[in-house]
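Fill in residues.
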């Protein structure tokens, strides 16, 4: 047999790693026996399989011995390596089949019952509030600029921090038809699929945390700006999708496509945001509120969303995310207690 190509060598390395369960660089007899039981291999016992590759008779197979047994039809002792090759191919096929099963697991989580009511209810409420303010401010004829809702008792305003409900209720009021149209389309497209997999209350919690993160961030980084719109909560849904892809990477089909689409969406939006803020000097939009909602979705999503198969790396990721979100919220909380806004009272 000829020497293995680089691709074949990489495939051999993957096969070796599948059998080397403790990752110590050696496949022991116990590891071979375990794999034989799991694959129900009947052509040869574990002792014969390991003997065909273990040319130095030390009771374990190194990667070099593994590679030689795959490359040549006989080993250095003149014995056939046929059973060894059959066994390795079975292990690799079994692993591929298991991976395909895992990929189907995420699709199986989509449930139509109970229906995804949280995002639908929030959308109906926000549209209802918009219609109300359109009737009051625009003679029921909303446009790109109307209704103007910055003076609403629901909007977040710099001098109104004592009215704590404003840290959340600002998401229900929108400034102009394009503002609400964009937010409603995005939260329906992203929120409903997320709710079908992870359930309504997990999504509602992330949505609400994104809303609070948006107003907290705006109060710190844009302390003299008013804040309206559900963008902070909507960006938390985008961040939640990023978190979902990360924590369920191994179980999610088309994960590379999902990751690429999310990356392009986030990169494009933040590029436009940075351009508008620093090159066009547009201060009418609280981009820091968008960013805070996105970060909240990414970080707390690792805790709140369902993780179909928790790994050690994901455990560390969860604690890092909790630390980032916790430090940010605590800092903003005390900022709003002690920061001296230039407004002494809440404007009417």
């Amino acid at each position: 047999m000829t020497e293995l190509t680089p691709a074949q060598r990489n495939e051999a390395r993957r096969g070796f790693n599948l059998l080397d369960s403790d990752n110590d660089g050696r496949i022991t007899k116990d590891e071979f026996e375990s794999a034989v039981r799991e694959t129900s291999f009947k052509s040869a016992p574990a002792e014969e399989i390991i003997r065909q590759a273990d040319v130095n008779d030390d009771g374990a197979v190194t990667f070099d011995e593994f590679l030689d047994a795959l490359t040549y039809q006989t080993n250095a002792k003149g014995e056939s390596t046929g059973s060894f090759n059959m066994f390795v191919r079975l292990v690799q096929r079994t692993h591929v089949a298991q991976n395909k099963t895992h990929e189907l697991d995420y699709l199986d989580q989509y449930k139509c019952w109970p229906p995804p009511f949280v995002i639908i209810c929030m959308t109906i409420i926000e549209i209802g509030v918009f219609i109300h303010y359109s009737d009051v401010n625009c003679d029921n004829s909303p446009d790109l600029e109307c209704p103007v809702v910055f003076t609403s008792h629901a909007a977040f305003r710099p001098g109104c921090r004592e009215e704590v409900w404003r840290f959340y209720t600002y998401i229900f009021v929108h400034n102009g038809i394009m503002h609400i149209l964009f937010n409603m389309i995005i939260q329906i497209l992203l929120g409903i699929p997320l709710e079908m997999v992870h359930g309504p209350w997990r999504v509602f919690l992330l949505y609400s945390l994104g809303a609070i993160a948006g107003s907290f961030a705006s109060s710190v980084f844009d302390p003299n700006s008013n804040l309206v719109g559900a963008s902070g909560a909507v960006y938390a849904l985008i961040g939640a999708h990023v978190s979902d892809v990360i924590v369920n990477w191994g179980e999610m089909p088309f994960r590379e496509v999902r990751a690429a689409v999310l990356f392009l969406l986030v990169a494009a939006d933040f590029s436009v945001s940075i351009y508008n803020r620093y090159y066009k000097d547009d201060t009418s939009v609280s981009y820091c509120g968008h960013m805070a909602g996105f970060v909240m979705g990414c970080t707390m999503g690792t805790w709140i969303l369902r993780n179909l198969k928790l790994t050690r790396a994901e455990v560390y990721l969860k604690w890092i995310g909790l630390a980032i979100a916790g430090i940010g919220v605590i800092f903003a909380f005390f900022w709003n207690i002690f920061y001296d806004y230039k407004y002494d009272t809440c404007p009417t």
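The beta strands are 26-28, 60-62.
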